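Side project, low priority. Logging it here so it doesn't get lost.
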Amino acid sequence: MASLTPVTTTRIGEHLPLLDLLPDAQPFAWVRNSEGIVGWGVHATTTVSGPHRFADARHWWQKQLETFAVTNTVHGNGTGPVLFSSFSFSPDDVSVLVIPKVIVGKKGDKSWITWIGSEPQPVLNSQTPQLSDSAVEWQVNETSDELWKSRVQTAIDRIQADALDKVVLARDAVGTSKFTIDARAILRTLAAEYPSTWKFSISGLVGATPELLLRLTRGMITSRVLAGTISKTGDDDRDLALAASLARSSKDLEEHEYAVRSVADAIEPFCTSINVPESPFVLHLANVMHLATDVTGALAETLAHVDAFTILEQLHPSAAVCGTPRPKAAALISEIEAMSRGRYAGPVGWIDAAGDGELGIALRCGQINGDSIRIFAGCGIVAGSDPVKELAESEAKFVPMRSALVK
């Protein structure tokens, strides 16, 4: 019988901000404000795809856990061995699972380090690494805007013909740098400019999502739903007026209701109670404002073997990134979107040994491939949508990644 691999988790004292600890350009990260977890090195990794990818991911993770001898003096979510997960939007594309060799976490006044193997506790960076910014030149395709507006109009026509209620259409942009693009530099900029979002990095997919798909913590489920967007002007008085108009917009409220209902319906079978606020709040980010609702639920104790994988399988794809009804919206996306989303708009984050975890929807992000990066934006289309306004909204959603790559 093969010997078990040691996994050790212990508390650590004060240290650099999490993102400054990362020693190489292929980091793993899930950080919001100053809290979260980061990792580096690869103990094990695999990919999954197909309609059973969440179940396959669980099976692989459980098999890996069976090979560990865990010593954990810290306890709590995110301690011990952790699986960084980045699932594809479509089952046809590849999802990536990684167990880092080293993980550092922070929550409140508690900080910890986890490492895999029999080596001594790793020594952390004591100085902020100097990173070179990767200025990117964006490819210009003058016909792409018109093509995308045409696809939006096709979606509006289908919705008005009662084929479906809502569909989310995405587009992309590609940029290249003279140097290999370092995800750490992007993460730092995003952390400074969008502190309230969840910054993530897994196998080249890097971004700052404002949308928490699932937090599962000791039987409590939380999901932050975003749908309905308006750009900010930078003028406080004007932006307050715009926020009020967003909160009253029938088009945006309709889009938001579809997204909230899809999440509530997905988690209801697992819960003894669910809380869905009657009306959304307006979430202010640096460049845009969103209608937002936090849906919460208490996991039924009588249900056995319900973990983050189980719930993700029902939650994804929500109306916020697919549409309503989900099968019809997914079919229309496949028909007219004319691109592969890859891991954009898929669940991204981490899952621990207890099956708890925190995963967002991979939005405001890009996929790094050496010296190039492909960034994404999507818009929810309903009967009252306007292709010109949707194009402007998509450009606003490109801003976080574009600004993080212009230095």
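Brief comment: The chain is about 25% helix and 35% strand.
Revisit when time allows.
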